[in-house]
Amino acid sequence: MTQVSMSALIAGARTGQLVSFPTDTVPALAVRPDCSELIFAAKQRSQEKPLILMGAFPASVWPFVKGTATEMEIWQQVAQKYWPGALTLVLPASAQVPAAMNPTDPTTIGIRVPNSRIAIAILSQTGPLATTSANRSGEPPLQTMAEIETYFPGVLTLENTELEADQFINTGVPSTVAKWTSSGWKILRQGAIQVEGAKR
């Protein structure tokens, strides 16, 4: 049985254990960024599919990216408009990003702030975590903590009492992924959010 209280889940995440919690899109499988290889192993995930860095608020994830003052201003304006929410921004990675998060292209990092009280409560205590959907690679995202517990018995999930108290809502639709390029935003995956002026 790996269902635990929120405080136990936060403590586990801080020590590098795999955890799972609801977000505004699909439930996340999460781990400390320097332990990212645990997610790739658990999901049997291709090294070519990078993880997303999820934080409780924008200021917690900006240190993981690097750009010119003008670029930072553009990125922050987009974040201000769509965060917290189902938008992942793929930006140039700073030296703070562990290579294990994106083994085949450590020059970029996807960042996101979820619109989920429960996720933000956890992330504000753990700091930004490396995340992905909770499922085996190539299979549909798992939607409930019970399913996640069955597929990933070693992962810490939240007790039902913790979940009922929050009445979280997840859409089941993954986030929109927008990558910054020399010519502006390019949509890598269209999800719930439409980004103005972005190219397909």
Helix and strand layout, with pairings?
Layout: E1 3-4, H1 6-14, E2 19-21, E3 28-31, H2 37-43, E4 52-54, H3 58-61, H4 69-82, E5 87-92, E6 108-112, H5 117-126, E7 129-133, H6 145-151, E8 157-158, H7 160-166, E9 176-181, E10 184-189
Parallel strand pairs: 1-8, 4-6, 5-9
Antiparallel strand pairs: 2-3, 3-7, 4-7, 5-6, 9-10
Helix pairs in contact: 1-5
Description:
It is a single chain. The protein is of the alpha/beta class and 200 residues long. The protein has a single domain, classed as DHBP synthase, CATH 3.90.870. Helix content is 29%, strand content 21%. The chain has seven helices and ten strands. The protein has helices spanning 6-14, 37-43, 58-61, 69-82, 117-126, 145-151, 160-166; strands spanning 3-4, 19-21, 28-31, 52-54, 87-92, 108-112, 129-133, 157-158, 176-181, 184-189. The strands form two sheets. Strands 2-3-7-4-6-5-9-10 form an eight-stranded mixed beta sheet, with helices on both faces. Strands 1-8 form a two-stranded parallel sheet. A hairpin with a 6-residue loop joins strand 2 and strand 3. The chain is globular and about 45 Å long. The protein starts with a strand and ends in an 11-residue tail after the last strand. The mean pLDDT is 91.
Write out the CATH superfamily name: DHBP synthase
- Estimate percent helicity: 25-40%
Tally of helical segments = 7
Under CATH, the topology can be stated as DHBP synthase
Number of strands: 10
Structural class: alpha/beta
Order of helices and strands: EHEEHEHHEEHEHEHEE
Distance between the termini: 44 Å
What low-confidence regions span 5 or more consecutive residues with pLDDT below 50?
A: none
Instruction: Report the major sheet.
Output: 8 strands, mixed
Global mean pLDDT? 91
Question: Approximately what portion of the residues adopt beta-strand conformation?
Answer: 15-25%
Order of strands, widest sheet? 2-3-7-4-6-5-9-10
Gross geometry = globular
Radius of gyration: 16 Å
CATH architecture: Alpha-Beta Complex
